[in-house]
């Protein structure tokens, strides 16, 4: 089954990482994959554009089915391989409701993170303002405190939707991994730090850990004062 799958990806990209974790959790190792470079603009190559006209990654194909949006790909993999590997959508209505809620809140978390760590990438030099970056940082602090509170309420050793690892963890952990890669203090955000430590040794996450993070374990300090 995995032989019919192709993933074009970039190291350190949370959307790509989401799909890779889902593939691992569903025991779909051995899929075709190609690591691309943002710096070389390979995400705009003809190979990508033939599958994904937006020229974005991840680019994912299963047989003739193309699912490029990372959340959609994760839902698709759980739906098509429901009885294989980890069950990623719980049956209980309360846990399922919380899973969906946290999944889609995760998009806001990711957006607010990017507005800080990639501010200079997204905003042309002549349009940058310290006041705008300050607002973005304040919005990220508010967001981080929200997630810290969610985890506090669930208690130690919990996943995002309760006692089971679900799609919420698949799609949100890459953002959590990225905040700590960029220097977030686990002392200042102990519940997020605990969650990060709980999941980073999970086999699916170890197997899909960004290769350039492995090569250079020391991260950045962009968020050290957040």
UniProtKB/TrEMBL annotation:
Descriptive protein name: Glutathione S-transferase rho
Organism: Oreochromis niloticus (Nile tilapia)
Cited InterPro entries: Glutathione-S-Trfase_C-like (IPR010987), Glutathione-S-Trfase_C_sf (IPR036282), Glutathione_S-Trfase (IPR040079), Glutathione_S-Trfase_N (IPR004045), GST_C (IPR004046), Thioredoxin-like_sf (IPR036249)
Chain ranges of the GST C-terminal domain: 92-220
Ranges of residues in domain GST N-terminal: 3-85
CDD domains from the UniProt entry: GST_N_family
BP term (GO), one: glutathione metabolic process
Gene Ontology molecular function terms on file: glutathione transferase activity; maleylacetoacetate isomerase activity
A Gene Ontology cellular-component term: mitochondrion
SUPFAM superfamilies on file: GST C-terminal domain-like (SSF47616), Thioredoxin-like (SSF52833)
Xref: Pfam families: GST_C_3 (PF14497), GST_N_2 (PF13409)
Transmembrane regions: none
């Amino acid at each position: 089954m995995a032989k019919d799958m192709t993933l074009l990806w970039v190291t350190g990209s949370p959307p790509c990482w989401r799909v890779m974790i889902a593939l691992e959790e569903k025991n779909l190792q051995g899929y075709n994959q190609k690591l691309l470079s943002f710096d070389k603009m390979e995400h705009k190559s003809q190979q990508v554009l033939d599958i994904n006209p937006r020229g974005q990654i991840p680019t994912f194909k299963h047989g003739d089915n193309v699912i490029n949006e990372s959340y959609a790909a994760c839902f698709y993999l759980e739906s098509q391989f429901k009885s294989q590997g980890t069950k990623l959508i719980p049956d209980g209505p309360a846990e399922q409701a919380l899973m969906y809620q946290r999944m889609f809140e995760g998009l806001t978390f990711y957006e607010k993170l990017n507005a800080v760590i990639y501010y200079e990438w997204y905003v042309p030099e002549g349009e940058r303002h310290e006041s705008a970056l300050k607002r973005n940082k304040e919005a990220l602090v508010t967001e981080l405190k929200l997630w810290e509170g969610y985890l506090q309420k669930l208690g130690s050793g919990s996943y995002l939707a309760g006692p089971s690892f679900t799609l919420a963890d698949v799609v949100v952990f890459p953002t959590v991994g990225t905040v700590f890669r960029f220097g977030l203090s686990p002392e200042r955000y102990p519940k997020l730090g605990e969650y990060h430590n709980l999941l980073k040794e999970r086999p699916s996450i170890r197997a899909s850990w960004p290769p350039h993070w492995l090569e250079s374990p020391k991260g950045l300090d962009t968020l050290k004062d957040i």
